[in-house]
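Hey Z.,

So I finally got round to the iron/sulfur cluster thing we talked about over coffee. Here's the setup:
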Amino acid sequence: MLGEGILKGLAETAKNFAGSFVSKERMTTVEYPEERLLLPEASRNFPFLVYDGEDWEKGLRCVACQICEKECPPKCIYIEKSKDKKPDYVGKPQIYPTKFDIDISVCMSCQICVEVCPFEAIKMNTEFELATDDRFGGLLLDRKELARSNEYYHEIHPTEATEVDARLAGEKAKVEMKAKAAADAAAAKAAAAPATGTGAAVAAAKPAASTEAKAAPATKPEEMAKVPAAATAPAAATAPVAETAPAAAKPVPGTGSDGPAPMTAEEKNKAETPAKPNEREPKV
Ligand code: SF4
Ligand code: SF4
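And the result:
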């Protein structure tokens, strides 16, 4: 039929026109800002800092290691470290950032800061309503403006946030197991210590007592005084003699001096018989 194709096309157009007012699939216009589309999980804009719990300041995961600050290509992160420490998510004392600013007028949304962070502390946000009439101050976000809860992270990146939570929970469990094992080992050592400690104490006490018993007579002056002088004197007198006697007893040849060592008969004859002159002086 002549004009059938035209009629079919007009019918399709009429159907879409009417359907765009009633059919959900055809209503492609989003009445922003009253209405908003759910952004895809992979979408990203600028970074934010994740915190756990209710208190953003206490719960910040960031430990001010400054890796992200060093790695950021346009250098738009500025961090100042704290002097004190606070417990992190596994209870380990860590420093924290007293200042953490990101200049989002410079940030290029490269996500390198997220990739390098070892503490899962910085993630990419999906917020895009950041227009301001303050070109510099309004786009320099401090740590309070950057802080978002872990629940928020789950809302915008549910898959990624679940993986991160599982990883952190695994690390926490490992740390707790280690701490428990250390505590058990310390308790076992403490329980074993009294038994060995008593044995050691007894063993140590015995020699001490015997040493004391031996040393006692020498150290007590009144007992020393009771010891007869005759008993001590020979010991003091004989000791040097015994030591010096060999030297004094050495016979001096030709002197005839009386020494404690007896002379042999040959030595005696030699001493008594005067020496002949020709024997003393060598012949010329
Ligand atoms: S997303 Fe890139 S440019 Fe932006 S703060 Fe992180 S590292 Fe720097
Ligand atoms: S966000 Fe991560 S990488 Fe950056 S300072 Fe904090 S802990 Fe370190």
